[in-house]
Amino acid sequence: MVNFDTVKAVPSADLLTPGNAMMLFVDHQPQMFFGAGSTDRASVVNATVGLAKAARVFDVPVVLSTVAAESFSGPLLPQLREVFPKHEIVDRTSMNAWEDQALVDAVKATGRTKIILSGLWTEVCLVMPALCALAQGYEVYVVADASAGVTPAAHEHAMQRMTAAGAVPVTWLQVLLELQRDWARTETYAATTEVVKEHAGAYGLGVTYAQAMIDPHAAG
């Protein structure tokens, strides 16, 4: 029931903000991409880099992790590394990132309780840390288009499993725009629209057109 006396124009505590969220990127590596068949790999790369740039624009804490980088899976996705060239990468042996103490310590060190999670593969290296983090009280937002599984069914069933456990499915563009949330927020307006133009496909082209032909400040 709505209490009209308490209805105000204020954001919900459920919304992601630069002050309450962190991003965890898990196993965006060549070998993992080789096996990812649930969607177009180039789209996953684009979404992952767009998400990473959203973190950079809003200074959201980031944890990067790989599995068996030197012996099997290869280095972190170069385009992702380019966004965070100086970030430490937590390399693991465990498929479940949440069983690696260094990774958990890195997540804890951010002091954030909302985890924006993406990675490969959805049904293995994503679902396990998501369930573990949820069980320990974190809120988990799974970036579906910056993640991929071995097959469409594997990805979808893993997303369903995480959602049933309490995770929130989102997309990279949704995260970016939720962090911006107000086009009058001038300190991040230009950087946000640049990420949109670089990675948001038709929407990005629309922003480019609007800014060139209608108003240089056009965006939403």
From TrEMBL:
Coiled coil: none
Keywords of this entry: Hydrolase
Gene3D superfamilies: Isochorismatase-like (3.40.50.850)
SUPFAM superfamilies the record matches: Isochorismatase-like hydrolases (SSF52499)
InterPro entries per UniProt: Hydrolase_YcaC-like, Isochorismatase-like_dom, Isochorismatase-like_sf
Record-annotated Isochorismatase-like domain positions: 22-172
GO terms assigned for molecular function: hydrolase activity
Keyword Hydrolase set for record: yes
Source organism superkingdom: Bacteria
Protein name (Swiss-Prot/TrEMBL): Hydrolase
